[in-house]
Fold this sequence. Notes:
about 80 residues; alpha+beta
Amino acid sequence: MRAVASAPEIEAKKAALREEFPSWSIIHTTDTGRWWATRVTLVSEDLSRIEGATFDADTAEELRTMLREGDDAGKER
């Protein structure tokens, strides 16, 4: 079972992710404790049809890893 982070810890992690990935909207859901990232420029499109437009993870660190890998993959195209 994972430890529950406090609201200030969550906000600090969110701020760090937003600073590192400014083109992404970072969300933490309190009901599930999951982390989400959505490309800011794609929020009005059907994101389920665009590969790499959203990511979700159990922790902020997992999300950071996914975003880094996604950004690297995008640079290779």
